[in-house]
Amino acid sequence: MPPTSHQSRLTPVRLHLIPLALLATSATFHAQAPIERKSPEADLPTLKVASRLVTLAVNAVDAHGAPVGGLEQKNFHLFEDGKPQTIRFFDRESATPLSIVLAVDGSESVLRNENLEKKAAERFVKTVVRPSLPTGEGDELDLMEFADDVTELVAFTADRKRIADGFDHLHRGDATALYDCVYLASQRLGQTSRANGRRRVLVLVTDGGDTVHGTHYDEAIEQAQRAGVTIYSLIVIPIYADAGRNTGGEHALIQMAEDTGGKYFYVEDAKDLGPALEKVSEDLRTQYVLGYYAPEATSKSRADGFRSLHIELTEPPNITLRYRTGYYGSK
Description:
It is a single chain. By secondary structure, the protein is an alpha/beta fold. Helix content is 24%, strand content 27%. The protein is globular, with a radius of gyration of 19 Å.
């Protein structure tokens, strides 16, 4: 049956490790494009602290893990490299827009019940993507899959129908280019607007086994930190007690989530994917966004430009905060 006019506009794009400037024109990519590998520092411009606001999403939970609402700017104290900073931007909970990359592992160990998985992902999109917000901007989502390589199925859009059609283009593969995906997804997120405290989020659905020897873990996490990306890892376990589980890959996914202020969830069965995505949606809806103008680098600043972040809460007591641990600024 010939494709409909809407389907004909869905052209999956294979992504390559190339400079960010070229990635902006991803619609013109071809599978034969040469692969050019550059360091994260070369691909993403560092934050120019003299004119740019550093923003970070913060989750606050009580002793039972329930989100804590109603906090005010005066409740937070923010430190960069141990020095107190003045908070200049503050938004409660879900008032700020989202740019999300939903990246799905196309390996055989993950894509087990494609119908269930597609329905779960469509519910997530319907719940989390808000086309219009009071700020005048809306949320947007980019759909990627990664197996032997990384493919952008749908570029950033708020069109839920177009995103849903993109799930029909998922295909199985033998390998898992996980770190390539984190690197490239972070590049794409790095292109999105920073206006109105926009949050950059990467949701990974994978079993954690990186089997393509391209990007290394350190390069992938650095690229995410340079772009200010929060990573949520949905770790698929084919058989929970299987001695062949890739625990090293699982630990890497957990570490990526913790270092970027995200969270991880285990998915033991295809039917568990929906509840896990709902938890991600709830987490995003209950965030606070803080912003400050970062100080100039000093002789004591790290040579690579990385700056550590720490947030304290004055009250109420017994509240746990989750946020990214640092960012890369100008040297």
